[in-house]
Specification:
Low-confidence stretches: 39-46, 82-91
Number of helices: 4
Distance between the termini: 185 Å
Largest sheet: 4 strands, mixed
Structural class: alpha+beta
Order of helices and strands: HHEHEEHEEE
Shape: elongated
Mean pLDDT: 76
CATH class of one domain: Alpha Beta
Strand content: 15-25%
CATH architecture of one domain: 2-Layer Sandwich
Strand order of the largest sheet: 1-6-2-3
CATH superfamily of one domain: TonB
Amino acid sequence: MNVLRRVSWDRTAGLLLVVALHGVVLYGLWAARVIPPPTAAMTLFVNLIEPAPIPPKPSVTPPPRPAKPLKRETPPPPEPHHHLAANTPVVSPTDAVEPPPPPAVTEAPPEPAPLPPAPPAPPEPVTLGTELALTCPERSPPAYPPLARRLGETGKVVLRVELDETGHVVRAGVLASSGSHRLDAAALAAVRTWRCNPAQRDGQAVRSVATQPFNFTLEGR
């Protein structure tokens, strides 16, 4: 029995010691402000519930007022026009009346001067019935082109030549070609250097036209 009592006493003493230690620890924590006081601890768990916002009242727009009709201003009545009678002086038969001035005489514009007569057209050139060479004391035969000679080109070319009043050749062209443009060019170059006697009409020198043939041949053919 003594043993049992001793054991229960030891347990009771141990429990008291544990409770005392817990009390000391709690006091120390409370003194160090680690554990908040009961009032502060209670405020940590208080949640403020805000009231629900009151919805705003819908704004009611007043209906637009009807526009007032514009008053039409009536124009004032027109003033009556008074016809003014002009006082025309009465002319007695004895009063002298000045005659109106005579109408102004306008001079007629001068007639334009007559245009000078147009110069007469030059007469047509006289066509000679013979070859041009018969009327040209200064003439030289055409030179045979070297290339045409090497190529063996031959042929007859007929030229139409026009002379002025002094006997100079003013125009020359090919009437019939020789078949070689080199031979034709040689004949034209030669006839442009000729000096001829002008044709006569009624004792005056006139322009004339004649033909001139040139025959290009090679010796030995």
